[in-house]
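Lab channel / #folding
Pinned by the channel admin:
"Please post every new chain as: sequence first, then the structure tokens as a reply. Keep commentary short and put observations after the output so the thread stays searchable."

First post following the new format, from NK:
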Amino acid sequence: MRDAELDLRLGARLAELRAERGWSLGELAERSGVSRSTLSRAERAETSPTAVVLNRLCAVYGRTMSQLLSEVEAEPVPVVRAADQRAWEDRAAGFVRRSVSPPHAGLRGELVEARLAPGADLAYDRPPVPGLEQHIWVLEGELEVTVQDVTHALATGDCLRLRVWGATRFRCPGQRPARYLLAVVLP
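Reply from TO:
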């Protein structure tokens, strides 16, 4: 699922965003809470950043993860066929994220299909954009979503709507993977 060309373009875009702001790796490390070495390796595409690292960088740069990933795609198109929808994987975390919506940096809404392996636990310390609206619709399995110290236990077919201002956590408590649709709307 991981695409080396996508990692190269993502690394170049991350370096570009940092350069646009005139930040050193050290300054970005302080702002994001990500180590200089991890940032350096991600910018040189020596490693693909984890979901948590990308979330922290998106928060610093004021973008959603889909916006950032759409910036490294080729020309925007109005239709993306299922076979052409890009998937990004954080193997260590047991997380796969597939961009369903055609990429376009200027739009406020997007659809993302996500999968968490059994026992996977993703904790984000902040939203990529404060006040981000999310609709989480569980397509298969069980999913626990914790927002502001409140845990929502979701089963197949359940949908949770929220605005994200602080930390969130996504956990797959079941024996089967959790597959869910995430609708993201910028404030």
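NK: The mean pLDDT is 90.
TO: also worth noting, The beta strands are 87-90, 95-99, 109-116, 121-124, 132-140, 143-147, 150-154, 159-164, 168-171, 178-185.
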